[in-house]
Specification:
The chain has eleven helices and six strands. It is α/β, with parallel strands linked by helices and about 400 residues long. The chain folds into three domains: about 220 residues, Cation efflux protein transmembrane domain (Alpha-lytic protease prodomain-like, Up-down Bundle); about 80 residues, 2-Layer Sandwich (Alpha-Beta Plaits); about 80 residues, Alpha-Beta Plaits, CATH 3.30.70.1350. The strands form two sheets. A three-stranded mixed sheet has the order 1-2-3, with helices on one face. A three-stranded mixed sheet has the order 4-5-6, with helices on one face. Helix 6 packs antiparallel against helix 7 and helix 8 runs antiparallel to helix 9. The chain is elongated, with a radius of gyration of 29 Å. It starts with a helix and ends in a 5-residue tail after the last strand.
Length: about 400
């Protein structure tokens, strides 16, 4: 069904980095959600009113909030598809993330209101009328929501959309909520305890948790997450494919929304290489990364003196010292400046976030080890962090 709908309503569906195509995916997801959720709202509201169940009515209004979220999503995709302009040179792709936050806010507000209504039902319980028709209706609702979860998960994974994945997660929470409602209605046959109100509270908690998880996922995207390991591995493979590239470091990947990803790294080459030839190689690598991963990559070339025996000895000396401090540390960009009284060692150290030693303590440890060497060394260290997984 999902593939049929995509073929029917999304033109050029494989061009997922095209904002217009993403907008069509968003329209398909949103309109499908609006139709399904309005139908479920009407169905549950009628059944909840007839049976006198606050849990069913709560579940109905949860579906109504989902319809409102779909409308917000529809406009969000429209805004995200706007081309770049002078005020937003990186485009409007992050509107998808802001849309996710709005959806989460609607979900949380609805969850709070349902919690209050359900608590009132616990304090002042009312008899729930059991009906086979109500149970059948709720079972149909579970089936529809399961399909919507699968539908949005497939679309979200295909175009890497946090909004659709958030919608899928909300649908799964709805399934749990409706199951709780089925339990409360069935329990009304056997007890006068306020099971309906208790289940309404549980439903509201599931709704609140769903909203909180969406906020966490979206805020991570807005603040900036590290590039995933698979992406980093693929970039490294492309950069290192040519034997003239002998190392890679300082990789950074920045996302300005789906389809708008920028990256940079340093590629190490032998200092003896022809600079024009290497420049042409770097250009080729940047184009290949974009063609393969749709990442706009900028690669800085670092010349390394691999044929200088004295420099190689200093590099090996530093590698041994740093490895003894911790195998989690690494270094690169070593340059030496020798004078009459001492030699400056200029290099970068990469330390993981939360490393047990401060930058100052790492430098002191290195300086202490170097002070025992016959040559007098001074260190000039730049401390880096890892920006990828």
């Amino acid at each position: 069904m999902t593939e049929f709908l995509v073929r029917r309503f999304v033109k050029n569906s494989d061009d997922i980095n095209n904002p217009a195509v993403r907008g069509n995916y968003g329209m398909l997801s949103s309109i499908t959600g609006i139709i399904c959720n309005i139908f479920l709202f009407l169905l549950k509201y009628i059944m909840g009113t007839l049976s006198g169940s606050i849990a069913i009515v709560s579940d109905a209004f949860n579906n109504l909030s989902d319809s409102a979220s779909c409308i917000v999503t529809l406009f969000g995709y429209k805004l995200a598809a706007k081309p770049a302009d002078k005020d937003h040179p990186f485009g409007h792709g992050r509107m998808e993330y802001l849309t996710s936050l709005i959806i989460a806010a609607v979900i949380i507000v609805m969850g709070i209101e349902l919690f209050k209504d359900s608590a009132e039902k616990v304090i002042h319980p009312e008899k729930v009328k059991f009906s086979v028709l109500v149970i059948v209706s709720l079972a149909a609702s579970i089936g529809i929501k399961l399909w919507m979860s699968v539908f949005n998960t497939k679309l979200g994974n295909k175009i890497n959309s946090t909004v659709m994945l958030a919608t899928a997660k909300d649908s799964r929470s709805d399934v749990i909520a409706t199951l709780a409602t089925v339990i409360s209605v069935t329990a009304s046959l056997f007890t006068d305890l306020p099971i309906d109100g208790v289940m309404g509270i549980l439903v509201s908690i599931f709704i609140l948790r769903s909203g909180y998880e969406i906020i966490c996922d979206t805020v991570d995207e807005l603040l900036g997450k590290p590039a995933d390991a698979g992406c980093v591995k693929r970039i490294t493979e492309i950069v290192r494919r040519d034997e003239r590239i002998i190392g890679i470091h300082d990789m950074m990947i920045h996302s300005y929304g789906p389809g708008k990803v920028y990256g940079s790294c340093h590629a190490e080459v032998r200092a003896s290489e022809d600079i024009l030839s290497v420049h042409d190689l770097i250009d080729t690598i940047e184009h290949e990364i974009y063609h393969d991963l749709k990442i706009i990559m900028t690669i800085h070339m670092d010349p390394i003196e691999v044929d200088n025996e004295q420099e190689n000895q200093r590099r090996d000396m530093l590698a041994q010292i740093i490895a003894e401090i911790s195998p989690e540390l690494s270094f690169h960009d070593l340059r030496s400046v020798s004078g009459e009284t001492h030699t400056n060692l200029i290099f970068d150290i990469v330390a993981p976030f939360g490393f047990e030693l401060s930058d100052k303590e790492i430098k002191e440890r290195i300086d202490s080890e170097l002070s025992e060497r016959p040559v007098k060394y001074f260190t000039v260290i730049t401390f880096d962090r890892i920006y990828t997984e």
